[in-house]
């Protein structure tokens, strides 16, 4: 059952695909809503789940989260906003269980037992919003109802479930070819190589640097012949440069965001000065989305949309403010500590400043709207722009598309990665925990930068991260320029690393089939134990995940461990992998077990009475036999297997066979 | 057995108190030392312990650590230098076990299986150093030998084991009185209130702001009548101000560090422009140390030495560099991203810059030495200055003294706190892990800022942090100005919080006695399980600690948990505390156990056949009966009880009775 409360005249987000009549008189709404505030009582038996890829644990209690897409790469525990803004959550306590979706692009703050340990306070900045109240018997039922409300999740081609190698720092064709060759020589599975910003001519979207990539089309073709795809980045900002067609057209057609005077808004990002396409304007969306054709025509089959919070490094306003702050102190004797900090702050505030966002305007169906009020819709609509037009360009075949910023609704057009993380052990766990909230909000094709984007990744960290990422739909090794090279062949024990990738490919029929069923049926691919088991131990476990209906994973995410404690909520069959193969299998009783796993070993736990497909060793999705394979798990079990051609856009029960 | 290798002519650190003849021909040294590098092979069965309060886990394998005292408050996993520089470690592998102490004040980098997973590389910047190789049967024996080499650890008065409340932001006498009153009214135990920088007149050491503290002596006396001590901060930098006696004397006597022209070196810290006392100069040390008498004469009985890495916020050099960098861009059109970052970097490099440290000079026994080469000795010698002179001022009675920066040798003069941490759950665990390396290096009176210095501390985080800190010798709640107030009375469930403090006082006879025995016998107060048990599980456990010989703790350090898995390496008796009392006791078998502990519950595990003293409920150290108490643990056990008057400087076996 879904009930809706409408306050004022909310901005249309297109998050939902079903119409629900509002029912403002409902007792429930009157109890919890006080103007722009929503209040719930909580206690030590309350659990709050959801809020997409927000910070901290699976259970959101104990901190504050602000929905405000933020380009902040340092995801320490104290950060309240990461890249996404996803306003759906479920509250479960002893008496009750229900879901809430706040459909509003405005800044929303969730104080979940932080300021007051027994209160969950929500504050919506806007006067206008829709709130959906979703009532059902279980968390999974509530999620399913919610997912129906917001529409079917995006599906990438099957090859996008292969392993991808990325790095900001591949400068030219030779770099790309070397990455391919090194994977090939070292027998490391590979399906995708990603192009970060350096493939472009001066960071201009839909251009190619001809010196570095003299014949991209040929490079794409050559790699495609080896079944490896090149996946370029597209940034939100369009470089201001006379003669550059995207810029010229955008200006002419009025498709860029405006400033308060009605001129095209100017910010600085990688290309230098840019305008920002007005993705809230349907015409601009169609126009920009069709630009992807330029690269699709060169054989490109996938994209990642970046910098679309949108990130703004600085504007003239910020620069002027900085110079004027600093001017005061020029030549001054005895500059004080607080003087210096004032100067420093003038630098710090420039980056992604609300003062700039508040000077930027959109044209939404003819209405001029301040960007600050719809900030959370920007990345969503960039990816919608691409998704809608790519479907027009390629109506039969799926293409790969994922985004950094996101908002509920965007899940229909693309996946996401969790943005710039660090080579921290704690970020393995964080990304595990993020997967749950993201799935609840409809984001299914998801993953984190394996090994960490910033910082230097050691071999053991890479190994453990890969072992978890074996189960994320998006499995991409990505890192920043200036950090230690972290392609798998950079380490000492390449065989050990590549053998983890081998397991990924052996499990690909299972991973893909599970993913497809979850999308088709609005189910969750990643679930915490708490969503299926209600014993006292299961409900608190935040470092194990159920994958589909058949397996549980319990990755090692701490340094210098050769095993970990795993809790089995029921009997399961442990299958341990090593050297591209099953090392051992054992049926384990319900309860806690210390599972020994050396660095290059990892486990799945197959649920009682279940089995899963287990394919041949392959180094590429094309080499995986999706029709003939063995099984892991319990004898006499059956498995519902989803098997299409891996590319068809249709999603249907007809592709499912019980085997 | 201790062997010494000497290279060149090392700077005298006074880290050691025993003379060891050097034996450069020893095969061991020739195998591992290559000029300024030391190399060990490691494998998956190697463990490296020690390096004081350095970052990351108890086992140091998997990362890089640089000994270089750094005022960096953001202790994320990627930081290589924290506040301390402590160059003792133990390597244990299948074949061998030994300790290494590098006695050199220079920057030293330890790459422990990070760059190459099978190599432990050490690089010493200086050409001159002593290396001690310590061979014995067990880790604990090696630690004991090392501790004999470097001398007996500092001991504070017994009241310093009570609970302390601190905050940067107590501005005046009224604030202090309110803190006392609120603790009293709410029945929260208290022994110390700390004064951060605002008690001083313009941040000048050994001055009092008369407007804010019109009669400090009286305040001290009034609080002392209630058995609460006021503990002021002392910073390293001395404000440049005409007429200020410390400044005037220091200049006149030539006791400040010099610049390259021989003028007194100038840096900016809290007071504005300062000189830095040359703590490497014995005369300057005596002079500065005697200044503490000014406050001791007002009844003060303890101090914390801060900013003694030394922190330098900026110098004229940095400011000039910044202005010149920025000047280039003034009025420039189209400032690029990298232009802006160059400007920003010119701000960032100002703080604690090596460029400044390299312009600062010491007078060590008549030799002029560049600060950069002896940087790690600075905080050590500040605290040595205070410790040596306070002992002269008060030869009979111990005083409280601890420091932020440290180096081995300093452990004889004071304790340390782990510096500016964050209100992060992960920092409970980090501080647990730091305790081990610190104890190995001789630092015994230690603790971390409870609740976190930076960031906002929620009630549940405070509760769990207190539960761990119940066992740290230094138990201080400290936080930064601008953060959420985190005195215990600021939260909803004050009783639950204060009942944890009650347990601290009930365990005070045990904590103090254990501490004293460990100092007397060069033993460790905090030990990982690996130091006493060699089973496969114990050696990997990094989140449980043994305290003395009698108990094990396994704190809950994760949010939203009402229990955790605890591993018992042998049978133990669990004692669970709640509401200031024992809630239950149970003998548990060897193995893993899920121990349920609600937010306000916590456990100790008493080792088989042991018992510990358990005193009356008290709200202050003076109320604890150290002569008459009950016991927790196994019947028929005995306990070696150290019981002196809590203040006498003598340490002796004579104070130990078996009871």
From TrEMBL, chains A, B:
One of its GO terms (molecular function) is carbohydrate binding. InterPro entries: Gal_mutarotase_sf_dom, GH, Glyco_hydro_31_AS, Glyco_hydro_31_C, Glyco_hydro_31_TIM. Residues 524-610 form the Glycosyl hydrolase family 31 C-terminal domain. The keyword Hydrolase applies. One of its GO terms (biological process) is carbohydrate metabolic process. The keyword Hydrolase applies. Gene3D superfamilies: 2.60.40.4040, Glycosidases, glycosyl hydrolase (family 31). This is Alpha-glucosidase. Residues 154-513 form the Glycoside hydrolase family 31 TIM barrel domain. It comes from the Bacteria. Keywords: Glycosidase, Hydrolase. It comes from Streptobacillus felis. Belongs to the glycosyl hydrolase 31 family.
């Amino acid at each position: 059952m879904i009930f809706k409360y409408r306050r004022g005249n909310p901005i249309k987000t297109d998050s939902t695909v079903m119409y629900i009549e509002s029912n403002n008189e409902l007792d429930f709404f009157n109890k919890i809503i006080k103007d722009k505030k929503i209040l719930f009582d909580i206690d030590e038996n309350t659990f709050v789940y959801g809020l997409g890829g927000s910070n901290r644990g699976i259970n959101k209690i104990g901190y504050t989260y602000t929905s405000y897409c933020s380009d902040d790469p340092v995801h320490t525990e104290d950060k309240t906003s990461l890249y996404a803004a996803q306003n759906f959550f479920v509250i479960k306590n002893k008496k009750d269980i229900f879901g809430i979706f706040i459909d509003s692009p405005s800044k929303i703050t969730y104080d979940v037992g932080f300021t007051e340990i027994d209160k969950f306070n929500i504050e919506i900045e806007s006067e206008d919003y829709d709130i959906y109240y979703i009532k059902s018997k279980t968390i999974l039922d509530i999620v399913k109802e919610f997912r129906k409300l917001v529409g079917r999740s995006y599906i990438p081609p099957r090859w996008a479930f292969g392993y991808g190698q990325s790095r900001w720092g591949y400068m030219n064709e030779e770099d790309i070819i070397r990455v391919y060759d090194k994977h090939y020589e070292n027998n490391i599975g590979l399906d995708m190589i990603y192009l970060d910003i350096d493939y472009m001519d001066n960071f201009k979207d839909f251009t190619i640097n001809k010196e570095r990539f003299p014949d991209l089309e040929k490079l794409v073709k050559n790699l495609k012949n080896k079944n490896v795809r090149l996946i370029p980045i597209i940034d939100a900002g369009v470089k201001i440069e006379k003669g550059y067609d995207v810029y010229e057209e955008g200006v002419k057609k009025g498709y860029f965001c405006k400033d308060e005077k009605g001129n095209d808004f100017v910010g600085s990002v990688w290309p230098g000065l840019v305008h920002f396409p007005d993705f809230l304007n349907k015409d601009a969306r169609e126009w920009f989305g069709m630009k992807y054709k330029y690269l699709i025509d060169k054989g490109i089959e996938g994209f990642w949309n970046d910098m679309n919070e949108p990130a703004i490094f600085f504007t003239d306003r910020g620069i002027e403010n900085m110079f004027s702050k600093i001017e005061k102190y020029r030549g001054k004797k005895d500059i004080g500590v607080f003087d210096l900090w004032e100067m420093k702050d003038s630098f710090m505030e420039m980056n992604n400043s609300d003062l700039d966002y508040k000077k930027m305007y959109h044209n939404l169906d003819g209405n001029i709207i301040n960007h600050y009020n719809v900030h959370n819709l920007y990345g969503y609509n960039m990816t919608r722009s691409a998704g809608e037009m790519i479907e027009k360009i390629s109506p039969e075949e799926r293409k790969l598309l994922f985004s950094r910023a996101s908002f509920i609704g965007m899940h229909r057009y693309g996946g996401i990665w969790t943005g710039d993380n660090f080579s921290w052990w704690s970020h393995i766990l964080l990304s595990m925990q993020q997967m749950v909230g993201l799935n609840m909000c409809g984001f299914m094709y998801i993953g984190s930068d394996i090994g960490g984007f910033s910082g230097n990744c050691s071999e053991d960290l890479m190994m453990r991260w890969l072992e978890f990422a074996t189960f994320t739909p998006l499995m991409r090794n990505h890192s920043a320029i200036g950090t230690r090279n972290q392609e798998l062949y950079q380490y000492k024990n390449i065989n050990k690393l590549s053998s983890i990738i081998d397991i990924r490919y052996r499990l690909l029929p299972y991973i893909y089939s599970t993913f497809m069923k979850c999308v088709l049926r609005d189910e969750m691919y990643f679930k915490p134990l708490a969503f299926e088991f209600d014993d006292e131990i299961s409900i608190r476990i935040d470092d194990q995940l159920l994958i589909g209906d058949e397996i549980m994973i319990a990755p090692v995410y701490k340094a210098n461990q050769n095993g970990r404690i795993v809790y089995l909520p029921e009997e399961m069959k442990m299958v341990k992998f090593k050297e591209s193969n099953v090392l051992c299998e054992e049926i384990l009783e319900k309860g806690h077990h210390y599972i020994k796993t050396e660095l290059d070993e990892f486990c799945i736990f197959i649920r009682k009475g279940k089995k899963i497909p287990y394919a041949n060793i392959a180094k590429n999705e094309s080499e995986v036999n999706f029709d003939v394979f063995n099984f892991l798990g319990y004898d006499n079990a059956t498995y519902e297997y989803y098997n299409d051609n891996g590319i068809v856009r249709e999603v249907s029960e007809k592709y499912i066979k019980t085997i």
